[in-house]
Design goal:
Helix content is about 35%, strand content about 15%. It is α/β, with parallel strands linked by helices. It has a single domain, classed as TIM Barrel. An 8-stranded parallel β-barrel has the order 1-2-3-4-7-8-9-10, surrounded by 4 helices. Helix 1 crosses helix 2, helix 2 packs parallel to helix 3 and helix 3 packs across helix 5. It starts with a strand and ends with a helix.
């Protein structure tokens, strides 16, 4: 089992570089930075996590800036987006940001992605909410072309460019792993077509089979699609930090647990990090 940590990096919390260095010293495998460019003041869209949206959501640093700061003070720990809202970003620019970070970190980037839940936030970026996953798909496929081809081109309904030269390429070949977040009815379709892993959020309401059964369903569908089930990693986001949960998820086939930290100062988060570190065997 691999263990990671996620925390909204904000100006009132422990700095992302200090956090990352502390996590690596404690033996954690990865640090995951969330993303929200902004939060509309209207708050018409309900937050899936509860009634009151934490202020962290509109105070977070840009994840790639935070992860670059983390990369500068660490040597082995993976640096991940958890998750990147691709539909709010231009794929040509994002592909360069990711390749640059992967190169400068020595090939340590993990690309956690998702479609977003906030209708107004998504639409402020010029994206119709109902088309967000179609756009997400095209942008991932286009970025893969940019990362792997000397002269990349892509022609879709939302992303369209003729042959271009785009460098640097990622250090990881063919590209950093793409991990799909979420647990919607069509999530597995996206995982199977263009991702390298699946990452549901523990504790969020979810209809249908339990996690162990869903993992089995995913692996079966991956094999039926002609892919090796072992090529799809399973991570659990916001995992409950206790030994019983570690054992249960491990038996279910989960390969990585990502624990949540509050966006708080060093004195608040260090005791939690030390407590979580006890689970690393």
């Amino acid at each position: 089992m691999k263990f990671g940590v996620t925390m909204f990096p904000t100006e009132y919390a422990i700095r992302p570089d200090e956090l990352a260095k502390t996590l690596e010293e404690r033996g954690f495998e990865s640090y995951w930075a969330p993303e929200h460019t902004h939060i509309p003041a209207s708050r018409n869209t309900p937050w899936p996590g509860g009634s009151d949206l934490p202020r962290d959501y509109w105070h977070t640093y840009d994840p790639f800036v935070a992860l670059t700061a983390a990369a500068a003070v660490t040597t082995t720990m993976k640096l991940a987006t958890g998750i990147c809202l691709i539909i709010q970003r231009d794929p040509l620019t994002l592909a360069k940001e990711i390749a640059s970070l992967d190169q400068l970190s020595g090939g340590r980037f993990i690309f956690g992605i998702g479609g977003g839940w906030n209708v107004e936030e998504v639409e402020n970026h010029g994206t119709a909410f109902k088309t967000r996953f179609r756009q997400l798909r095209e942008k991932v496929l286009a970025m893969k072309e940019l990362w792997t081809q000397d002269e990349a081109e892509f022609h879709g309904d939302f992303v369209n460019f003729d042959k271009v030269w785009a460098y640097p390429k990622p250090l990881q070949q063919p590209h950093p792993p793409v991990i799909m977040g979420g647990d919607a009815p069509t999530t597995f379709d996206r995982v199977i077509e263009f991702c390298d892993g699946w990452m549901p959020i523990q504790g969020r309401p979810s209809a249908g089979p339990d996690l162990a059964e869903k993992i089995g369903i995913l692996k079966t569908r991956v094999a039926e699609a002609g892919r090796d089930p072992a090529s799809i990693s399973i991570s659990v986001f916001a995992a409950q930090p206790n030994q019983e949960n570690v054992s249960r998820l491990g038996e279910a086939g989960v390969e990585r647990m990502v624990f949540s930290l509050p966006a708080a100062d060093r004195e608040t988060v260090l005791p939690l990090i030390d407590e979580y570190a006890k689970l690393i065997g």
